[in-house]
């Protein structure tokens, strides 16, 4: 860290950073506590902390449900905190203030029974002037914290109702008295100029002497006269930094600016960095930047509130970096100082937001005024941090465009050190500097050839893809043992108990694995779509870790503690999300062995420097590790900061005789990435079937079963109350929030070693060879079957419903045997995976292994296989 000393006649703390020689007195410790008001302090509580931490206040009597974790205590209203403070003798002639780092929502302070004032910020510290020349010795300090909602900021605002929301009451972070001279530096803002190798320093001088004055400010031997009025003053000067290193994600070098007068000094820390846009791309210090980020929605499973120590945030950012990410968006909230400090040190680019979500700007004047003031307070308090790169007023809201544009312009004019936008995925203003939108988000089939270029072409500013992913994972009851704080995972318990009641508890570990592996592979695809889009700005995952509330939204490969769930390692995730990612554009993932495999190799390189004279390599290998094909492309240079095309490959699979899954791997300068592909025989063998009946009408199937035949019933056209149309994608966000959406199912679950799959390579879970099959499928609710019954291809239902459902299953019907297929194979035989599955069904049906022993009544089957009613047309009605 570089240091520069300044001499000034009067100085004090920078924003909330603790000055090196400012006098402070911590008030952490035991306080008297009451929910009844002044003079009724019958309890004790430790601050910093909350009444939930202390186990105080009324117990939560609400019934546990699937909305999220269960708080043990629940209290909304005012709470009083009181203690004695002692003013040191040497503070007698100083200005004394009270510093409360983070509170919810309104605080009111009394000193010796005299009311000092009230504050209501959700985003910055509450600071109170206690007076000048306070008498040394003991004083009584009382603080009322009122956590009732003061404005309707929206249903989904993380500052109030985050990922582990509970309406907490308390004070967290630093709680202290601060003493400064009566003329002090009220704020110091540093504005780097990278091209000039200098920084403009703006100082606001505070003054409580009641008199105007003047003095000298010395910068590197140069003295400047400064003056102040009765209400304070301002000073501005330029400081050269000829040898300062630039701050960026790869080299987050910080600078330190020390200002002092005699024994009093303060330190302003900042980074030499400028962030700007170049067309549809972000750039930092003149170099392109691609944002690879995740959200933080205030998910704190032990406390319900964010940590205020740097070490805790460095752990989180270290996990982000290990997974290849360089960016975090704080969804509708602003984190405490430690989050910025840690991001400065780790090179993480932050997007901070006002505490507002899903409302209408212009509809509530008091709310609008509060929000605008919050936005100002945020940039004034945390503006020096180089990690503070982006800002939005909040999440997914609209309203009067001219009002929102005014907010954006206010921020741009007030502090140009970062980029600003209108609400994320909300009303778009013309003066936005970037846009957060859903354009480019989602799955577009079992291919890797598509990208979001059309969206980039329509948008003049950089695009950040909004909240990509949101694929649901299955709740793991083993996680409950980690929730030892103010909440309990009763929602997980409810799911577990429901499975037990329905005879499915033995499948729970398999549900966890199948859903987890499936959702994780989808994250790979949605990230790569954006990486292979020229000119795209970046993405924000929702989420790398779970969001436990809003309907038990378990949407991360990491749990709420940022710990891995075991489905992919950090290194494995980084292969497709890091600064340098090889890419492979394929028109599809399933092939016949007599057709060529053609693909184009690209590389998204956003590392610190160009790659020189690299030789791109590729391999295609079998599941047993053998090499099917290998090759190299001509050596080339790969420029940093863009997507580059490397060349094309073409491979023949003529030598492959059986269906198998292969792995295509691309490696460039040590960076590797891989993709699964499936190869099938061009004409799968169809077994002789003298005793097999294949049909598509239930009446035909019943007739054959009555004759004791083996029946393959293609049931795709059935459309009874016990069926649903299938889909490849799993639940989006939460099944609790979207109960009426169909089918809201998860992964398939099957046994790859079952004889049915002898010629159809598959895992236990859904993968890309199932994509088109699942998109044209019918799933059947089999709750009427015996408790122990398991379909051959089960579709895991969502955890809010827990039906036993399947797409391929077998039953005994009288003397006949029935194999039901819910995939529309007859109309998909041009696809190799459909032809192969059809062949496997017939082979299994004709084999000795096909011996179903579960009996279902004809009444149950009749209900299950009701056929779709023909659509009524205008002509048929007449």
Question: How are the elements arranged and paired?
Answer:
Elements: E1 2-8, E2 23-26, E3 29-34, E4 43-47, E5 49-50, H1 51-54, E6 70-71, E7 78-87, E8 95-103, E9 106-111, E10 114-119, E11 126-132, E12 137-146, H2 158-161, E13 170-180, E14 183-193, E15 198-207, E16 213-219, E17 222-228, E18 233-240, E19 255-261, E20 264-270, E21 275-278, E22 281-284, E23 287-289, E24 291-296, H3 310-322, E25 327-330, H4 337-346, E26 349-353, E27 360-361, H5 365-382, E28 388-392, E29 398-399, H6 401-414, E30 419-420, E31 435-437, H7 453-458, E32 463-469, E33 487-488, H8 490-501, H9 508-531, E34 538-542, H10 570-574, E35 580-585, E36 590-592, E37 597-605, E38 611-614, E39 617-622, E40 627-632, E41 636-638, E42 642-651, E43 660-668, E44 671-680, E45 692-695, H11 698-706, E46 710-714, E47 723-725, E48 745-749, H12 771-775, E49 778-781, E50 793-797, E51 804-813, E52 816-821, H13 832-846, H14 858-864, H15 874-877
Parallel strand pairs: 1-19, 24-25, 24-34, 25-26, 26-28, 27-29, 28-30, 31-32, 32-34, 36-44, 45-46, 46-52
Antiparallel strand pairs: 1-16, 2-13, 3-4, 3-7, 5-13, 6-33, 7-12, 8-11, 8-13, 9-10, 9-12, 14-15, 15-18, 16-17, 19-20, 21-22, 22-23, 35-37, 37-42, 38-41, 39-40, 39-43, 43-44, 47-49, 48-50, 49-51, 50-51, 51-52
Helix pairs in contact: 3-4
Detailed description of the structure:
Helices cover 17% and strands 35% of the residues. The chain has 15 helices and 52 strands. The chain is globular. The protein is an alpha+beta fold. The strands form 12 sheets. Strands 30-28-26-25-24-34-32-31 form an 8-stranded parallel beta sheet. Strands 45, 46, 47, 48, 49, 50, 51 and 52 form an 8-stranded mixed beta sheet that branches. Helix 3 crosses helix 4 (337-346). A hairpin with a 2-residue loop joins strand 43 and strand 44 (671-680).
């Amino acid at each position: 860290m570089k240091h520069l000393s300044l001499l000034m006649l009067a100085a004090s703390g920078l924003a909330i950073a603790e000055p090196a020689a400012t006098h402070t007195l911590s008030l952490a410790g035991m306080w008297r506590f009451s929910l009844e008001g002044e003079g009724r302090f019958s309890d004790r509580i430790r601050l910093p902390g909350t009444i939930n931490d202390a186990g105080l206040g009324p117990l939560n009597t609400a019934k546990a449900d699937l909305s999220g974790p269960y708080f043990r205590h629940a209290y909304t209203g005012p709470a009083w905190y009181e203690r004695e403070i002692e003013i040191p003798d040497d503070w007698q002639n100083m200005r004394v203030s009270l510093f409360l780092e983070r509170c919810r929502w309104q605080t009111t302070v009394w000193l010796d029974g005299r009311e000092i004032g009230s504050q209501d910020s959700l985003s910055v510290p509450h600071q109170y002037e206690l007076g000048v020349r306070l008498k040394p010795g003991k004083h009584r300090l009382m603080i009322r914290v009122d956590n009732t909602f003061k404005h309707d900021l929206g249903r989904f605002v993380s500052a109030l109702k985050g990922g582990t929301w509970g309406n907490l009451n308390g004070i967290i972070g630093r709680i202290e008295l601060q003493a400064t001279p009566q003329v002090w530096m009220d704020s110091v803002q540093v504005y780097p100029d990278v091209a000039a190798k200098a920084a403009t320093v703006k100082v606001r001088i505070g003054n409580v002497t009641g008199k105007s004055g003047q003095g000298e400010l010395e910068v590197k031997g140069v003295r400047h006269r400064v003056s102040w009025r009765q209400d304070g003053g301002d000073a501005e000067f330029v400081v050269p930094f000829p040898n300062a290193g630039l701050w960026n994600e790869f080299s987050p070098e910080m600078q330190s600016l020390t200002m002092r007068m005699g024994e009093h000094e303060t330190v302003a820390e900042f980074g030499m960095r400028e962030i700007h846009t170049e067309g549809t791309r972000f750039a930092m210090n003149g170099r392109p930047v691609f944002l690879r980020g995740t959200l933080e929605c205030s998910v704190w499973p032990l406390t319900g509130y964010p940590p205020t120590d740097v070490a805790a945030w460095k752990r989180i950012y270290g996990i982000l970096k290990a997974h290849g990410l360089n960016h975090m968006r704080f969804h509708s909230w602003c984190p405490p100082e430690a989050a910025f400090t840690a991001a400065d040190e780790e090179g993480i680019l932050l997007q901070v937001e006002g505490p507002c979500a899903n409302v209408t700007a212009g509809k509530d004047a008091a709310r609008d005024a509060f929000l605008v003031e919050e936005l100002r307070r945020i940039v004034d308090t945390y503006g020096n941090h180089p990690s503070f790169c982006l800002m939005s007023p909040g999440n997914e809201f609209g309203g009067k465009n001219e009002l929102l544009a005014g907010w954006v312009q206010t921020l741009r004019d007030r502090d140009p050190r970062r980029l600003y936008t209108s609400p994320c995925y909300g009303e778009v203003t013309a003066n936005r500097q970037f846009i957060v939108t859903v354009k480019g988000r989602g799955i577009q089939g079992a291919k890797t050839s598509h990208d979001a270029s059309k969206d980039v072409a329509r948008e003049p500013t950089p695009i950040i893809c909004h909240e990509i992913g949101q694929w649901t994972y299955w709740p793991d009851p083993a996680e409950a043992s980690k929730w030892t704080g103010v909440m309990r995972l009763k929602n997980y318990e409810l799911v577990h108990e429901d499975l037990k009641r329905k005879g499915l508890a033995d499948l729970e570990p398999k549900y966890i694995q199948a859903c987890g592996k499936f959702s994780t592979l989808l994250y790979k695809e949605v990230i790569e779509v954006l990486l292979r889009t020229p000119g795209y700005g970046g993405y924000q995952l929702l989420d790398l870790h779970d969001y436990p509330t809003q309907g038990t939204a378990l949407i991360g490969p990491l749990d709420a503690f940022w710990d891995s769930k075991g489905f992919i390692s950090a290194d494995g995730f980084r292969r497709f999300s890091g600064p340098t990612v090889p890419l492979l554009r394929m028109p599809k993932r399933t092939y016949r062995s007599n057709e060529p495999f053609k693909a184009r190799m690209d590389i998204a390189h956003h590392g610190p420097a160009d790659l020189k004279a690299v030789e791109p390599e590729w391999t295609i290998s079998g599941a047993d590790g053998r090499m099917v094909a290998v090759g190299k492309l001509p050596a080339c240079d790969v420029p940093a900061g863009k997507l580059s095309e490397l060349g094309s490959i073409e491979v023949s699979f003529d030598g492959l005789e059986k269906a198998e899954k292969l792995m295509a791997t691309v490696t460039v300068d040590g960076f590797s990435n891989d993709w699964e592909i499936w190869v099938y025989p061009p004409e799968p063998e169809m077994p002789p079937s003298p005793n097999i009946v294949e049909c598509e009408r239930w009446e035909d199937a019943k007739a054959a079963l009555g004759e004791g035949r083996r029946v393959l019933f293609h049931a795709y056209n059935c459309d009874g109350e016990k069926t649903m149309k299938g889909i490849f994608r799993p639940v989006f966000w939460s099944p609790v929030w979207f109960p009426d959406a169909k089918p809201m199912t998860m992964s398939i679950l099957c046994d790859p070693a079952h004889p049915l799959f002898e010629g159809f390579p598959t895992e236990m879970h859904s993968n890309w060879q199932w994509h088109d099959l699942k998109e044209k499928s019918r799933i059947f609710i089999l709750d009427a079957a015996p408790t122990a019954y398991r379909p051959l291809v089960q579709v895991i239902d969502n955890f809010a419903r827990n039906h036993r459902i399947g797409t391929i299953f077998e039953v005994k019907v009288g003397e006949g045997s029935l194999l039901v297929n819910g995939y529309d194979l007859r109309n998909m035989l041009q696809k190799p995976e459909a032809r192969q599955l059809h062949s496997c069904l017939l082979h299994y049906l004709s084999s000795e292994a096909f011996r179903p022993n579960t009996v279902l009544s004809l009444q149950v089957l009749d209900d299950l296989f009701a056929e779709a009613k023909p659509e009524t047309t205008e002509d048929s009605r007449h």
